[in-house]
Design brief:
This protein is of the alpha+beta class. Helix content is 17%, strand content 35%. The structure holds fe (iii) ion.
Length: 156
């Protein structure tokens, strides 16, 4: 066997083996990286420093300390700094609130669906916590997407 033929066969065999294991030369597969290559919803949530933040980042008003199991009020306001438009074509469609205790999955607290023109993007919700948590607010603008914010609430 000629050397060039040998190398070609070795290369082909290595290529087949690589394909069988999902390895591409010099690149890790998604499984090897331990992650997924699929698009994640979190990727489209707009960070609070982006242009338009004054009208979109949900402002969360909540006490920094509460008593375990006692209801308290959380107010979420969209457009606190600069009022957001409120027309059929451009308005805040919904506001959601979630709570997450350390080491536990995130829990849905409430979803408020808002109609344009008549509903102001400002909601006050009764919340009860048993352990210190992070509260996450999400809002959806019909033109500018999903924005988020969070606050910590300590439970005594
Ligand atoms: Fe908007």
């Amino acid at each position: 066997m000629k050397r060039s033929e040998f190398l070609a066969r070795c290369g082909a065999a290595a290529g087949v083996a690589a394909l069988a294991t999902g390895t591409v030369f010099g690149q890790e597969t998604a499984a090897e990286r331990g992650g997924s290559t699929m698009a994640r919803f979190g990727d489209v949530v707009i960070p609070p420093e982006k242009q338009g933040k004054e009208k979109h980042v949900p402002h969360i008003e909540a006490p920094s300390k509460v008593k375990a199991g006692e209801p308290f009020e959380v107010t979420v306001i969209v457009g606190k700094e600069i009022a957001h438009p409120n027309t059929i074509a451009h308005h805040i469609k919904w506001i959601q609130l979630y709570a997450k205790e350390e080491g536990k999955p995130v829990a849905h607290v409430a979803t408020i669906d808002l109609g344009p023109t008549y509903a102001a993007p400002r909601v006050t919700l009764p919340v009860m916590l048993t352990k210190s948590s992070t509260l996450y607010a999400l809002e959806y603008c019909s033109l500018h997407g999903v924005w988020d914010n969070s606050v910590e609430v300590a439970v005594e």
